[in-house]
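Posted in: Structural Biology > Protein-Ligand Complexes

Title: Requesting predicted complex, 2-acetamido-2-deoxy-beta-D-glucopyranose in pocket

I'd be grateful if someone could produce the 3D structure tokens for the following input. Sequence and ligand are given below.
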Amino acid sequence: MKHIDNIPSTPGKFKMEKSPYNRLRLHSSLAKLTFWSFVFLGLIFVFFYRSPSSSSTGSLPSDLSRRSLRTSSYGDPAWEKRIKASAKVRATNGMSVLVTGAAGFVGTHVSSALKRRGDGVLGLDNFNDYYDQSLKRARQALLERSGVYIVEGDINDVTLLKKLFDIVPFTHVMHLAAQAGVRYAMENPSSYVHSNIAGLVSVLEVCKSVNPQPAIVWASSSSVYGLNTKVPFSERDRTDNPASLYAATKKAGEEIAHTYNHIYGLSLTGLRFFTVYGPWGRPDMAYFFFTKDILKGKAIQIFEAPNHGTVARDFTYIDDIVKGCLAALDTAEKSTGSGGKKKGSAQLRVYNLGNTSPVPVSDLVSILERLLKVKAKRTIMKLPRNGDVQFTHANISLAQRELGYKPTTDLQTGLKKFVRWYLSYYGNGKKSAQ
Ligand SMILES: *[C@@H]1O[C@H](CO)[C@@H](O)[C@H](O)[C@H]1NC(C)=O
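-- Reply #1 --
Done. Output follows.
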């Protein structure tokens, strides 16, 4: 009421406050205020008791305990100490990197490589249940042993992100958190919008407002080339024929990156990954579940394009991708803005990170058969029109020239390493992947 009293009131109003009618109104409004305060407090109470299960972080039941776990340690000195220790730079001229999606396939490998060479690394991951969470936990344990701590939280949680920047003034952000997968978009479209669009904006909002602004390297996707038929795919080709919602959200990400670079001077590098595979990979990818099904003696479906056309992928081994990610971080220029304002033009880049040698999916299966010493039960199916494209093939000359990127692992060699990991992790097929 105080600030209302300070407002010079008109003589007419002053008069009204003196009238008995107005006093009555004042009383009833006080009663109303009290009543609504109670209702409001009640709502807050109900909200806090219900919010974990109704949270929008992918609406995953498993988030419940995780979120409250994170909230309970949120801001306590031991938590901050772990964060600082993990992000501590040991190498001269090393960087401090916030890696989102750190418990993911690429996130784990990139975090571990950065840590090995003496950079400071802090992970962030929401451990959602899109695929087997125990695999994510195992990756987390792996990182923990090398001194990388993963904060459990969502990239949409701006308060948490700001808090992390308060604790560590990150020089770089490696933004890998995303909703992956092409076909799952038909089951859960909103999770793509939530992670790949809203989540990206949330990360960029925080990056633009902190001081100093970090440089950002983030994961786009080869899927932005969509239904393009001109090969190999080059960064200058058009990317307006997406074949899946996943591709559309990654394409949207590239446009959003342009905006934040243009308005706020954020240094931004998007990496278009081409079918990344290897040890600790994602169980939703073909090479992974083919391995599982071949070992189980289960039939596998191999897609074929119309007129017996070959479906091929430019499979890229994880170690090559990691080298590309590190090179992108190393060559990233500083952001130019401060206090949310742009001071000059900043770097904006996009690179293909592929292997430049597409392999037909049927050849992938033959390699797996040899490595597993088991014959696959093949079923040939028509390529469904629900997101998968017939082939991908990267032109990597730009990344070669500007990042010194040069993939060195062919599919045979890479799959051999994957199979060795798979058999040791899942105990020779006795404990199979979920
Ligand atoms: C690959 O891309 C570069 C531009 O980065 C272009 O000059 C070159 O012609 C492309 N190569 C092919 C085979 O399309």
